[in-house]
Amino acid sequence: MDRIRIVGGPTLEGTIKISGAKNAALPLMIASLLTPETLTLENVPALADVNMLLRILGHHGVDYSVDGRRTGEDPHASRAIHLTARSIVDIMAPYDLVSKMRASFWVVAPLLARMGEARVSLPGGCAIGTRPVDLLLMVLEKLGASVEIEAGYVHARAPKGLKGAEITFPKITVGGTHTALMAACLAEGHTLITNAAREPEIVDLADCLTKMGAKIKGAGQSIIEIEGVARLGGASHRVLPDRIEAGTYAIAVAMAGGNVLLEGAEAHLLQNALDTIERAGAGISVTNEGIRIKRNGAGIEAVDVTTAPFPGFPTDLQAQFMALMTKAKGSSVITETIFENRFMHVQELARLGARIRLDGDSAIVEGVSTLQGAPVMATDLRASVSLVIAALAAEGETMVNRVYHLDRGFEHLEEKLGRCGAIIERITNAA
Ligand code: EPZ
Asked: Is the confidence at residue 359, as pLDDT, over 80?
């Protein structure tokens, strides 16, 4: 299994190109199931999760091709993929595929909307908590499907097609909102979604569906209206830049010090996080090319953070920001409100010398002046990258194990950091 070795100390100087967003690319790829025509997605990051989803879509009958690179092209540039679900050959998504990636459960909505039936394995638990799918099933039922759970599978049926409905989410859910968008655009009549998620990835999916012929109003706001259409067609769409990747590297620069341009990053996608990182002592400026982040000499200030749905501070940056706070002057309180068990990084950060105490859904971080390198591992991708961030500012060598978590969500992480001066290398096939 691969490992990543980091020697802490150097500041980061240079440019990091921000990739297409994983969490936008995945639902966009799934949307290809809604049409027999070709959906072309540009700026798709080269990630293990994208490759896994291509396999899953192939199982349902999607033909796909991935653009190659021309000579001289940046090997780190995200790619274009073409997806054509001319006919759906299987409405069943088996356990061995869905259990590898939770987001693949989202195929249930387009399969049901297009074929009138879907059988999809329940995704099961995951490293960041129980993560139920009750609200996704509520969406399907509201739109007129019968939903039964049989032997670990969700069996959803709507032989006469889905019908528009009023859907009110009792809790904001990204996956629930993606599900409602994809199912309602092929349902007959009008759908009103209340308390919808407002994440940029929702807007990106709605934009793409609109190019495919869907009639959607209000994406990015709490109330979304959809007028169903009989069929959707092909389209070409560019995946938006990854706000979590941009936030992660911004925090890395705040931690290690230096001056880096996050090329292609869009500040409005992560304003809350940028404001928080700025309060922690980094300088941030927005340019035509992206976001520039600097920290020279000044210490790291302690800042309290509470995660919240967009436009709040994202849960997907909580672990990274906690890593930064381990070296702050003073103590900070980090409260996680989205997932109930997203603190697995705490024990591993402690191995590097961090002082963190858990109290319910909060972590109290007492800043220390020095972290010490150590062997560490983590059980999800954001937790893993928080260890990389801590390691950049730790004395000596840190070995991050279970690197496959990083490969699920960060494109060319060690090259991107290495080109800015970090001492970081991948050790392949280590025992
Ligand atoms: C998406 O997960 C992201 N995944 C997550 O990113 C992200 O952390 C999360 O949204 C929140 O922003 C992808 O986009 C692939 P939710 P999702 O439904 O849609 C509860 C990463 O690291 N809930 O918004 O699964 C749920 O348990 C990942 O890239 C129900 O109770 O998240 C959670 O407490 C991890 N019932 C809350 O809602 C349901 O039916 C928000 O979850 C669905 C969700």
From this structure: yes
Which domains are assigned to the chain? 3-19+241-427 (3.65.10.10), 22-238 (3.65.10.10)
CA distances from 288 to 17, 241, 266, 379 (A): 14, 14, 9, 37
Q: Which two tokens stand for residue 150?
A: 């049989």
| Beta-carbon count within 10 A of 404 CB | 12
Terminal CA-CA length for the chain: 6
Q: Is 0.90 topped by the overall pTM?
A: yes
Q: What is the pLDDT of residue 73?
A: 67
Residue with tokens 């139920």: 132
Of 19, 22, 23, 382, the one to substitute when testing ligand 1's pocket (max ligand atoms within 8 A of C-beta) is: 23
What kind and span of H or E run contains 79? strand 79-84
Question: CB burial class (10 A; 0-12, 13-18, 19+) of residue 196?
Answer: buried
* Residues annotated as catalytic (active site), given as ranges: 126
Cβ of 137 below 6 Å from ligand 1 = no
pLDDT digits (tens, 9 = 90+) for 112-150: 999 999 999 998 666 666 689 999 999 999 999 999 999
Question: Which ligand 1 atom sits nearest the alpha carbon of residue 381?
Answer: 22
Task: Report the SS3 class of residue 322.
Answer: helix
134 lines ligand 1 (CB under 6 A): yes
CA–CA gap between residue 428 and residue 418 (Å, rounded): 16
pLDDT at 129: 67
